[in-house]
Amino acid sequence: MPAKRPPVPLSRERIIDAALHIADGQGLRRLTMRRLGDALEVEAMAIYHHLPRGKDALMDALAEHVTAVHAEPGESWQESARAWCRASRAALREHPGVLALALTKPPRGRAAIAIREQTDQLADAGLADPAGAVRALRAYVFGAVAVEVQQSGWAEPQADPGDENEPWRPPSRGGGSPEADTDFEHGLDALLAGLGAR
Fold first, then answer.
1. Which domain CATH number covers 181?
2. Which of 2, 29, 78, 111 can bridge 107 by disulfide, Cβ–Cβ 3.0-4.6 Å?
3. Which residues belong to any copy of the HTH tetR-type domain (predicted)?
């Protein structure tokens, strides 16, 4: 009889991964500490050892996870901004279940550090108002992804989220069509041209 594998130790990373899986697969409304504990095969109270503020800390951590984006600086501020916007869009589309948190939670921790890094990149490349540019770029990316998720039908449940026998199965992850990619790039081109004309 094969030896039973020891349980995987609980960690902040495991908690966040499990929470993202629930949010993306069933919707943010169904992400409860009890359901998260069940997914991790631990008592819900065990999660509080890693997230002492409980659900509030979990929501902050999920928002940080999808907005703490890093991109290598390019040869120009436009290339740096474009790389950051593409990386940010990809991270947000990967986890549409927590898009609402990304839109509403103020940047903290690694997310705030990422914003400072992006601002410094644009400043070092010679852009006159790097902080204003980062705010405009973030607003564009978040808005563009929100439209993509809406158009994808992701947020439209195929079953009643309260029906345990028929779990909510989102039709698809947010966006990703060639048309959405083209629209995003055209909008980004226009925004970068406007920022450069200031």
1. 1.10.357.10
2. 111
3. 9-69
